[in-house]
Amino acid sequence: MSKQVYKRYLRLVTQWPKDQHKNPSRDLAVYLGKQVEAAFAKDAPTLNASLCEKKLNSLEQILSNKWADAYPHNYKSGSFGLTLEQVEQLTSDTSRKQLGLAPKKGILKSLFSFLPSKHT
């Protein structure tokens, strides 16, 4: 795979906006960065060049708002009738905790939580 394509992916990941309402484990920018690093680290010789180009072009179009600019609309709310600010608030980590959607400990961690930690 070309170094130029890898550099374009890295540039795209650095330009992707970070969501301040979510922790890094739920942020799309962080996820994209991890996926790019993983794909190019181990599979660089076996990556399909045309597929990588198509995905990169699609992500660049999303980042640049190509289709939102080409087809503007006057909608102020989504399919649930909520504004962007309301959706951001509902999908934030604090709202997810209030709704009981916080990340849960795994079964083994729950079972062995009574054991003392090695780091204390």
Question: What is the secondary structure topology, with strand pairs?
Answer:
Layout (H helix, E strand, L loop, with lengths): L2 H13 L12 H15 L6 H15 L2 H5 L13 H7 L2 H6 L8 H5 L9
Helix pairs in contact: 1-2, 1-3
Give a verbal description of the structure:
The protein is mainly alpha-helical. Helices cover 55% and strands 0% of the residues. The chain contains seven helices and no strands. α1 packs antiparallel against α2 (28-42). The longest helix is centred in the first third of the chain and has 15 residues, at 28-42. It is flat, with a radius of gyration of 20 Å. The mean pLDDT is 83.
What brief labels describe this structure?
120 residues; mainly alpha; 55% helix; flat
How many whole angstroms does the radius of gyration measure? 20 Å
Question: What is the helix content?
Answer: 55-70%
Tally the helices.
Answer: 7
Instruction: Give the percentage of residues in beta strands.
Output: under 5%
Give me the count of strands. Answer: 0
Task: Outline the low-pLDDT stretches.
Answer: none
Distance between the termini: 46 Å
- Structural category is mainly alpha
In sequence order, what are the helices and strands, one letter per element?
HHHHHHH
Overall pLDDT score: 83
Global geometry: flat
